[in-house]
């Protein structure tokens, strides 16, 4: 049995990627099992998905505790989650990053495939949805037949245009994937977010203390941030009311964006009638 864990953030398509890959293996003649695990079901929040592949029927129904592969759609999760926890010594890590495998530092050495899936998605689709690109990186790393991966897309997407575009992204990503061995650094101290993905934690919110959400720096959840044009703003306050993180702040003469907590969801841009807000890429 081959077991895969997907780590991503809400809105990046981690769960859809697990379904696409499950169908790809199904069309290769394998038995499959795919299912998600949620904490807070909100855009930008950490999520997981599990995929099991075997040549015989799968009877196990529990979360994967010892994975053969970990696929990470957002490198910022490395700051909060011990991604390698439960990964087999011979396991594979597929990571969305501009770094080369040897530049990635983890608590021990693993076979690592790296691909700048976010940039590929933005370049070819104009959206920060790296799931199809990361599937191409995985396919390259393990030698998965790309025709089977295309079948996986065909089973999920209804329109041929969407199938072709996502498969194109996967092929480009496969060509731009590097495979090697990651570096090693001392084990980092847990920063709290790891508990969100802990399999022992019950699904649902956990109240700790008043103001505890202030410690959850949601600006790390996206490569984008909201930028406000004061000259166009008509003070309608729709963005102020719609922002899910309360990042739009009222000042004496107008509005400001709290970049510490802006998670780049783009809701403010969508509701702004005067086009005074735009999502822009953060400077590296």
Would you write up a description of this structure?
It is a single chain. This protein is an alpha/beta fold and 284 residues long. It has two domains: 2-197, Pyruvate-ferredoxin Oxidoreductase, domain 3; 212-281, Alpha-Beta Plaits, CATH 3.30.70.20. 25% of the residues lie in helices and 25% in strands. The protein contains seven helices and 13 strands. The strands form four sheets. The protein has a seven-stranded mixed beta sheet with strand order 2-3-1-4-5-7-8, with helices on one face. The protein has a two-stranded parallel ribbon with strand order 6-9. The chain has a two-stranded antiparallel sheet with strand order 10-13. A hairpin with a 7-residue loop joins β2 (31-38) and β3. The longest helix has 16 residues, at 160-175. The radius of gyration is 20 Å and the shape is globular. The N and C termini lie far apart (40 Å).
Task: Furnish the topology, listing elements before pairings.
Elements: E1 2-9, H1 14-27, E2 31-38, E3 46-54, E4 67-72, E5 87-96, E6 105-106, E7 111-115, H2 117-124, H3 131-142, H4 146-156, H5 160-175, E8 178-181, E9 183-184, E10 224-228, H6 238-242, E11 248-250, E12 255-257, H7 267-271, E13 277-281
Parallel strand pairs: 1-4, 4-5, 5-7, 6-9
Antiparallel strand pairs: 1-3, 2-3, 7-8, 10-13, 11-12
Helix pairs in contact: 1-3, 1-4, 2-3, 2-5, 3-5, 4-5
């Amino acid at each position: 049995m081959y077991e895969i864990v997907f780590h991503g953030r809400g809105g990046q398509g981690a769960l859809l990627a697990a379904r696409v890959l499950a169908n790809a293996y199904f069309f290769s003649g394998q038995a499959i099992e795919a299912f998600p695990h949620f904490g807070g079901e909100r855009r930008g929040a950490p999520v997981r998905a599990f995929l099991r592949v075997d040549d015989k029927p799968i009877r196990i129904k529990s979360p994967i505790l010892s994975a053969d592969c970990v696929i990470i759609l957002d490198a910022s999760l490395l700051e909060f989650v011990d991604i390698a926890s439960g990964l087999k010594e011979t396991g594979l890590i597929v990571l969305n990053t501009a770094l080369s495998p040897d530049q990635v530092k983890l608590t021990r050495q693993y076979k690592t495939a790296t691909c700048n899936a976010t940039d590929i998605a933005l370049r070819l689709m104009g959206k920060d949805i790296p799931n199809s690109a990361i599937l191409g990186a995985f396919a390259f790393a393990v030698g998965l037949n790309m025709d089977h991966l295309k079948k996986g897309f065909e089973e999920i997407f209804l329109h041929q245009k969407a199938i072709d575009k996502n498969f194109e992204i996967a092929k480009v990503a496969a060509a731009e994937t590097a495979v090697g061995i990651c570096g090693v650094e001392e084990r980092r101290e847990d920063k709290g977010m790891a508990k969100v993905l802990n399999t022992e934690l019950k699904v649902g919110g956990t109240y700790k203390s008043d103001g505890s959400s202030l410690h959850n720096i949601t600006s790390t959840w996206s490569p984008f941030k909201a930028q406000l044009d004061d000259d166009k703003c008509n003070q309608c306050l729709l963005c102020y009311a719609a922002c899910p993180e309360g990042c739009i702040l009222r000042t004496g003469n107008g509005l400001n964006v709290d970049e510490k907590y802006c998670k780049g969801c783009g809701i403010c841009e969508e509701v702004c009638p005067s086009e005074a807000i735009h999502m822009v890429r953060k400077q590296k």
